[in-house]
């Protein structure tokens, strides 16, 4: 199972491989950089508090959450998850309804968050 996050131009592209494609119900997700409102790394347990109903994908409590879920505190908004047994996850919030939030377990969440944050700061320049 693999995940790659690419910052190219004006979008963030999340590419999946192996079994993730089936479990997460996606091979590629693209989110315009302009629609991203925040990026952070947080404990998986904190992110899981907002995990709503599973729409499509896989879920087994304490083991994994993959695919599409509702957002407990934001009715009508969808989140996309790719989380297994990790302690910390990368969270990307957007102004879109779907995906309103991406929650991912990646090898270097702090590094990816720093790259995304730098891209967002660069976007704000005149």
- In total, the number of strands is 9
Shape: globular
For the largest beta-sheet, the strand count, sense and barrel status come to: 6 strands, mixed
Lateral strand order in the biggest sheet: 4-8-9-7-6-5
Radius of gyration: 14 Å
Number of domains: 1
Helicity, as a percent range: 10-25%
Q: What share of residues are in beta strands?
A: over 45%
Query: In oligomeric terms, what are we looking at?
Result: single chain
**Unreliable stretches covering 5 or more consecutive residues:** none
Mean pLDDT: 91
Order of helices and strands: EEHEEHEEEEEH
How far the N terminus sits from the C terminus, by CA atoms, comes to 40 Å
The number of helical runs is 3
How would you summarize the topology of this molecule?
Layout: E1 2-8, E2 11-17, H1 20-24, E3 28-32, E4 36-43, H2 44-48, E5 51-60, E6 64-71, E7 78-83, E8 88-94, E9 101-104, H3 109-123
Parallel strand pairs: 7-9
Antiparallel strand pairs: 1-2, 2-3, 4-8, 5-6, 6-7, 8-9
Molecular structure report:
- With 126 residues, this protein is α+β, with helices and mostly antiparallel strands.
- The chain has one domain.
- Helices cover 20% and strands 49% of the residues.
- The protein contains three helices and nine strands; from the N terminus they run E-E-H-E-E-H-E-E-E-E-E-H.
- The chain has helices at residues 20-24, 44-48, 109-123, and strands spanning 2-8, 11-17, 28-32, 36-43, 51-60, 64-71, 78-83, 88-94, 101-104.
- A six-stranded mixed sheet has the order 4-8-9-7-6-5.
- A hairpin with a 6-residue loop joins strand 8 (88-94) and strand 9.
- 26% of the residues are buried.
- The mean pLDDT is 91.
